[in-house]
Design goal:
41% helix
Length: 187
Protein backbone atom coordinates (compact mmCIF):
# COMPACT_ATOMS: atom_id res chain seq x y z
CA UNK A 1 0.00 0.00 0.00
CA UNK A 2 1.33 3.42 -0.94
CA UNK A 3 0.90 6.02 1.83
CA UNK A 4 1.18 9.78 1.53
CA UNK A 5 -0.24 12.83 3.28
CA UNK A 6 -3.48 12.55 1.26
CA UNK A 7 -4.41 9.00 2.29
CA UNK A 8 -2.62 8.16 5.56
CA UNK A 9 -5.47 9.27 7.83
CA UNK A 10 -8.05 7.38 5.77
CA UNK A 11 -5.93 4.20 5.84
CA UNK A 12 -5.42 4.44 9.61
CA UNK A 13 -9.14 5.02 10.11
CA UNK A 14 -10.07 2.00 7.98
CA UNK A 15 -7.51 -0.14 9.78
CA UNK A 16 -8.81 0.85 13.22
CA UNK A 17 -12.36 0.10 12.04
CA UNK A 18 -11.24 -3.40 10.95
CA UNK A 19 -9.63 -3.95 14.35
CA UNK A 20 -12.87 -2.95 16.07
CA UNK A 21 -14.75 -5.57 14.00
CA UNK A 22 -12.84 -8.45 15.62
CA UNK A 23 -15.19 -10.83 17.39
CA UNK A 24 -13.42 -11.69 20.63
CA UNK A 25 -13.57 -15.21 22.04
CA UNK A 26 -15.91 -15.68 24.99
CA UNK A 27 -14.14 -16.40 28.28
CA UNK A 28 -14.67 -19.93 29.51
CA UNK A 29 -14.66 -21.42 32.98
CA UNK A 30 -11.85 -23.75 31.94
CA UNK A 31 -8.96 -21.26 31.92
CA UNK A 32 -6.63 -23.60 30.05
CA UNK A 33 -9.24 -24.17 27.31
CA UNK A 34 -9.70 -20.39 27.03
CA UNK A 35 -5.95 -19.79 26.75
CA UNK A 36 -5.76 -22.49 24.10
CA UNK A 37 -8.56 -20.81 22.11
CA UNK A 38 -6.69 -17.49 22.25
CA UNK A 39 -3.57 -19.13 20.86
CA UNK A 40 -5.13 -21.60 18.40
CA UNK A 41 -8.68 -20.69 17.31
CA UNK A 42 -8.71 -18.70 14.07
CA UNK A 43 -10.50 -15.38 13.90
CA UNK A 44 -13.13 -14.80 11.23
CA UNK A 45 -12.88 -11.00 11.33
CA UNK A 46 -10.49 -8.07 11.60
CA UNK A 47 -7.44 -7.15 9.54
CA UNK A 48 -5.89 -10.63 9.92
CA UNK A 49 -8.66 -13.24 9.66
CA UNK A 50 -7.57 -16.85 9.65
CA UNK A 51 -5.07 -16.49 12.49
CA UNK A 52 -5.54 -16.75 16.25
CA UNK A 53 -6.26 -13.73 18.44
CA UNK A 54 -2.75 -14.13 19.87
CA UNK A 55 -1.13 -13.96 16.41
CA UNK A 56 -3.51 -11.23 15.21
CA UNK A 57 -2.63 -9.14 18.27
CA UNK A 58 1.07 -9.30 17.44
CA UNK A 59 0.44 -8.38 13.81
CA UNK A 60 -2.00 -5.59 14.66
CA UNK A 61 0.38 -3.91 17.10
CA UNK A 62 3.23 -4.08 14.55
CA UNK A 63 0.92 -2.76 11.81
CA UNK A 64 -0.05 0.17 14.02
CA UNK A 65 3.63 0.91 14.67
CA UNK A 66 4.11 1.08 10.88
CA UNK A 67 1.00 3.18 10.21
CA UNK A 68 1.52 5.71 13.00
CA UNK A 69 5.28 5.77 12.30
CA UNK A 70 4.69 6.63 8.65
CA UNK A 71 2.17 9.25 9.73
CA UNK A 72 4.88 10.84 11.89
CA UNK A 73 7.34 10.72 9.00
CA UNK A 74 4.84 12.43 6.71
CA UNK A 75 3.90 15.15 9.21
CA UNK A 76 7.36 15.81 10.68
CA UNK A 77 9.59 14.94 7.72
CA UNK A 78 12.47 14.02 10.03
CA UNK A 79 13.77 11.49 12.51
CA UNK A 80 15.77 13.27 15.20
CA UNK A 81 18.05 15.71 13.37
CA UNK A 82 17.88 13.83 10.02
CA UNK A 83 15.56 15.36 7.43
CA UNK A 84 14.00 12.95 4.97
CA UNK A 85 13.22 13.76 1.32
CA UNK A 86 10.30 11.31 1.05
CA UNK A 87 6.68 12.32 0.48
CA UNK A 88 5.27 8.80 0.21
CA UNK A 89 6.06 5.36 1.57
CA UNK A 90 5.34 1.88 0.25
CA UNK A 91 4.12 -0.16 3.23
CA UNK A 92 3.55 -3.87 3.66
CA UNK A 93 1.46 -4.77 6.69
CA UNK A 94 1.64 -8.14 8.40
CA UNK A 95 4.46 -9.42 6.18
CA UNK A 96 6.95 -12.11 6.95
CA UNK A 97 9.44 -11.27 4.22
CA UNK A 98 10.74 -8.22 2.42
CA UNK A 99 10.74 -4.79 3.97
CA UNK A 100 7.93 -3.34 6.04
CA UNK A 101 8.41 -0.04 4.27
CA UNK A 102 10.34 1.52 1.42
CA UNK A 103 10.55 4.97 -0.09
CA UNK A 104 12.33 6.62 -2.99
CA UNK A 105 12.75 10.29 -3.92
CA UNK A 106 15.38 12.53 -5.46
CA UNK A 107 17.51 9.51 -6.34
CA UNK A 108 17.60 8.36 -2.71
CA UNK A 109 16.12 5.21 -1.22
CA UNK A 110 14.91 4.20 2.24
CA UNK A 111 14.30 0.69 3.53
CA UNK A 112 12.75 0.03 6.90
CA UNK A 113 11.51 -2.49 9.39
CA UNK A 114 8.96 -2.07 12.16
CA UNK A 115 8.09 -4.10 15.20
CA UNK A 116 6.30 -4.14 18.52
CA UNK A 117 8.20 -6.01 21.21
CA UNK A 118 8.42 -6.44 24.98
CA UNK A 119 11.10 -4.40 26.72
CA UNK A 120 12.93 -7.60 27.69
CA UNK A 121 13.34 -8.57 24.01
CA UNK A 122 14.05 -5.14 22.53
CA UNK A 123 17.84 -5.33 22.23
CA UNK A 124 17.72 -8.74 20.58
CA UNK A 125 15.02 -7.66 18.10
CA UNK A 126 16.80 -4.36 17.36
CA UNK A 127 20.07 -6.18 16.58
CA UNK A 128 18.25 -8.62 14.34
CA UNK A 129 16.59 -5.78 12.39
CA UNK A 130 19.86 -3.81 12.17
CA UNK A 131 21.59 -6.85 10.71
CA UNK A 132 18.78 -7.42 8.23
CA UNK A 133 18.92 -3.79 7.08
CA UNK A 134 22.70 -3.59 6.93
CA UNK A 135 23.07 -6.88 5.06
CA UNK A 136 20.55 -5.90 2.42
CA UNK A 137 21.71 -6.34 -1.16
CA UNK A 138 19.36 -3.52 -2.11
CA UNK A 139 21.05 -0.13 -2.17
CA UNK A 140 19.70 2.14 0.55
CA UNK A 141 20.69 5.67 1.53
CA UNK A 142 18.52 5.51 4.63
CA UNK A 143 17.76 2.58 6.91
CA UNK A 144 14.93 2.92 9.41
CA UNK A 145 13.74 0.93 12.40
CA UNK A 146 10.33 1.86 13.80
CA UNK A 147 9.42 0.34 17.17
CA UNK A 148 7.05 0.72 20.09
CA UNK A 149 8.22 3.50 22.42
CA UNK A 150 7.39 1.51 25.56
CA UNK A 151 10.06 -1.06 24.62
CA UNK A 152 12.77 1.33 25.84
CA UNK A 153 13.27 3.54 28.88
CA UNK A 154 14.24 6.63 26.89
CA UNK A 155 12.64 6.79 23.43
CA UNK A 156 14.12 10.23 22.69
CA UNK A 157 17.62 8.80 23.09
CA UNK A 158 17.08 6.65 20.00
CA UNK A 159 15.78 9.53 17.90
CA UNK A 160 18.82 11.62 18.80
CA UNK A 161 21.21 8.72 18.12
CA UNK A 162 19.79 8.36 14.61
CA UNK A 163 22.15 8.71 11.68
CA UNK A 164 21.23 8.47 8.02
CA UNK A 165 22.50 4.90 7.76
CA UNK A 166 20.43 3.81 10.81
CA UNK A 167 17.41 5.80 11.92
CA UNK A 168 15.31 4.93 14.97
CA UNK A 169 11.70 6.03 15.31
CA UNK A 170 9.95 5.08 18.56
CA UNK A 171 6.15 5.25 18.30
CA UNK A 172 3.75 5.46 21.23
CA UNK A 173 0.66 3.85 19.70
CA UNK A 174 -1.62 5.02 22.53
CA UNK A 175 -0.55 8.67 22.27
CA UNK A 176 -0.73 8.60 18.47
CA UNK A 177 -4.15 6.95 18.56
CA UNK A 178 -5.45 9.59 20.97
CA UNK A 179 -4.07 12.40 18.78
CA UNK A 180 -5.56 10.76 15.72
CA UNK A 181 -8.98 10.43 17.33
CA UNK A 182 -8.87 14.03 18.54
CA UNK A 183 -7.73 15.24 15.11
CA UNK A 184 -4.82 17.18 16.66
CA UNK A 185 -2.46 16.56 13.75
CA UNK A 186 -3.93 16.23 10.31
CA UNK A 187 -1.68 15.43 7.41
Amino acid sequence: MRLDSKNIDREISQYLEAVNQIELPTPQEDVLAFIDSLKRKSLDSGPHPGVSLFEASNRIMSDLIVLFGVRQLLTQGAVGHIRLPFREYEVRLGVKGGWDLEAAAEGQRLIGEAFSVAQSLFQQKKRSMQNKLLQSVKRADYRLIIFNADAVKSPDYYKEESEQDMLYLPVDVWVERRKFKEGQHEC
